[in-house]
Design brief:
alpha/beta, 20 strands, about 500 residues, Rossmann fold, 11 helices, TATA-Binding Protein, 2 domains, 5-stranded antiparallel β-sheet
Length: about 500
């Protein structure tokens, strides 16, 4: 009785308030209130990948994982939280259930199962008590997972309750037998699964072979040049809230780009439109290899017809790579065309490619910085918007091992006014190249989720919010763009043919 009272006392001193909380509830980051998720998470990966990642997470916690035939159901080994005497133990294990919704759409539910030995005790008649207790004492040292015998309760004609039966589960662990089990969704492990599958860095594939043909390029939304016709206007949309203080002659604005999305090219264009409308000379700097600059210059001076676009793409080794990352997306090609339209309308808009098709690590960062600094030395008054991956635009090397110096850090040392913006967003999709769970590079549409810091709350409007002090990583503010949407490569090899499409204009973040 004392043991029971002590347990209840501990429960009430540590968690009585949680007894009114729904099972599986988690704190809402905006309100702080505990809420049960109302939607399932669909992972945009094959079922085999999602199940393997769930398995890996549990194995890291020192569980053995047993897989059922078909691979969509798994059980872990069990453990006993705490240490109690036989008959009072609670044993726990995990059950993982996957559901294939499509070739690259998967649901994964992870349950923590709890088995309580006290719930296996049955009402025992007086005549059988001694026999039952004797057997219980004999079994005191055995572990329930290794048992090879079972008991079943059923009334017989004389009303006796306990009947000793032959074991129908020879050599099976006892937890696999018929007995009461309670299961709750383990949202903590499911959140870890989300992080492992959707909060991973994108790969930028520098160099690579060229084989995607561009023999007949049709660009949706492109207007053929007609002599005497009005120049098509850029699809500017509304200005980005909060960027006006960052726009000035000679200033450099670094935008962290989740590669392969539509929202960041859209935001960059809207900044170009606003700055150039104020009479500022504006430069759009893109992480395309600097060897592409002659082709880009030719296209910027052209009428922007489909033939002009075909010449740009067919002459390029970058847009036609076998394995393409988000830098060669349809949205990026769309952004190049919009910059051309701004320039054709008479605004002082330039385009510079600053990346390299060789080099890695610090060598690549140094070459990118050199290209931009050389351009800046010839164009000191331009307002420059630099679009690059988040790992490049940081203005410090915080969180990086060794002597790694990102592009942003090198520019901040050399230029008088450099500001870097991180990106805040809501869960969406992205075309990117990543290491999958099999440690192979895969380029496709993936789901992407923000970290806790980058998560855009429902109460936060799209636009720029500057920080009182720069973050440790060197970001001076955050550009919120809403839910992300994937933009696949402009050129993709098909069944014997190739096509290119800029797609519709990127949606304006709401």
């Amino acid at each position: 009785m004392r043991r029971y009272a002590m347990v209840m006392g501990l429960l009430c001193t540590t968690g009585c308030a949680s007894l009114t909380r729904n099972l599986g509830a988690e704190p809402d980051p905006e309100t702080g209130e505990y809420e049960t998720p109302k939607q399932e998470t669909v992972y945009l990966v094959p079922a085999e990948d999602a199940m393997m990642m769930a398995r890996r997470i549990l194995e890291e916690q020192r569980y053995d994982v047993l897989e059922k035939e078909g691979g969509l159901e798994m059980f872990t080994s069990a453990h006993e939280p705490g240490n109690n005497q036989r008959g009072l133990r609670t044993l726990e294990r995990y059950y993982i259930k996957g559901q294939r919704l499509g070739p690259r759409q998967t649901l994964v539910r992870i349950f923590r199962l709890s088995y309580n030995e006290m719930e296996r005790e049955v009402e025992i008649g007086t005549a059988m008590t001694a026999s039952h207790m004797r057997k219980r004492f004999l079994d005191e040292e055995t572990h329930p997972f290794d048992a090879n015998k079972t008991f079943k309760t059923a009334p017989n004609m004389q009303g006796q309750r306990l009947m000793d039966l032959d074991d129908p589960f020879q050599d099976a662990p006892e937890l696999e037998r018929f007995q009461l089990v309670r299961g709750n969704r383990d949202l903590g492990i499911e959140r870890t699964l989300l992080e492992r599958l959707e909060m991973v860095p994108s790969l930028e594939l520098v160099g690579g072979n060229t084989s995607v043909p561009a023999r007949s390029v049709v660009l949706e939304g492109w207007t053929e040049a007609v002599e005497g016709a009005q120049v098509p206007e850029a699809e500017c949309g509304t200005p980005v809230d909060g960027t006006a203080p960052l726009m000035a002659q000679g200033h450099t604005l670094l935008l962290a780009d989740p590669l392969g999305t539509r929202e960041l090219p859209s935001a960059a264009l809207r900044m170009l439109c606003e700055a150039s409308s104020k009479g500022l000379p504006v430069t759009l700097a893109l992480s395309l290899p600097s060897t592409e600059q002659p082709l880009l210059d030719t296209y910027m001076a052209s009428a922007g017809s489909s033939q002009d676009a075909q010449e740009l793409l067919s002459g390029s080794s970058f847009w036609r790579r076998v394995h393409q990352d988000g830098r060669s997306s349809r949205a990026m090609l769309w952004l190049v065309e919009q910059a051309r339209r701004l320039r054709a309308s008479g605004r002082a808009v330039s385009l510079v490619a600053f990346d390299t098709d060789k080099g890695h690590g610090n060598e690549r960062e140094a070459q990118m910085a050199q290209h931009l600094l050389e351009y800046r030395s010839r164009n000191a008054d331009t307002f420059m918007v630099v679009l690059a991956g988040g790992a490049h635009v940081r203005t410090t090397n915080a969180g990086r091992d060794g002597d790694f110096e990102p592009l942003g850090m090198r520019l901040a040392k050399a230029l008088p006014s450099v500001k870097a913006l991180d990106v805040g967003f809501q869960r969406g999709t992205q075309f990117s190249c990543r290491y999958n769970v099999w440690d192979a590079v895969e380029c496709d549409v993936f789901a992407i989720s923000p970290t806790k810091q980058a998560r855009q709350a429902s109460t936060v409007s799209a636009g720029v919010q500057l920080f009182p002090q720069p973050l440790e990583e060197g970001f001076h503010g955050r550009l919120y763009v809403g839910a992300l949407s994937a933009s696949p490569p402009a050129l993709q090899a098909g069944a014997g043919t190739a096509s290119a499409s800029a797609g519709t204009a990127p949606r304006t973040a709401q």
